[in-house]
Amino acid sequence: MIAVPILALAIGCLLAYFAVNPTAPLPREYIGVASLAGLDTLFGGIRAALETRFRNELFLTGFVFNIFLALGLVYLGTKIGVEMYLAAVVTLGGRLFLNLSIIRRHYLSKLADARDRRTVEANQS
Fold first, then answer.
1. Would you give the distance in Å from CA 107 to the centre of its chain?
2. What distance in Å separates the CA atoms of residue 7 and residue 114, rounded to the nearest whole number?
3. 70, 41 in Cβ contact below 8 A?
4. What Å distances lie between residue 86 and 36, 71, 83, 89, 91, CA to CA?
5. pTM of the predicted model, to two decimals?
6. Residue 67 pLDDT
7. Would you say 50 and 106 are in contact if contact means Cβ atoms under 8 Å apart?
8. Model confidence over 83-94: pLDDT tens digits?
9. Residue 39 belongs to what domain range?
10. Which of 5, 49, 53, 92 is the most exposed place for a label (fewest CB within 10 A)?
């Protein structure tokens, strides 16, 4: 199940790489916030897969909803003259760091468990 978020990231990177002038119609704030929303959903999907609670429909709807919500905040902020994209950046950035720290802890604990097993097996020999 962890392959779905990674595959989505790879497809998105390929589409962005081969797109013709992808940033022309949108200001930088829109691209930045949409990218953060996508990354947040991606790492949330990886975290859910590691915790064995990943569901495709939640991942896909969350991906689309997070991006549109973030873009909506930027649009609303632009219309009323308030830099609302900062709220999205702070929130999504915080969630991104949280998900990455949980993923890191998961793999570090697996590494420590494997090291402990090897130590126990070496002592038993």
1. 17
2. 28
3. no
4. 12, 12, 6, 5, 8
5. 0.73
6. 87
7. yes
8. 888 888 898 899
9. 3-20+27-124
10. 53
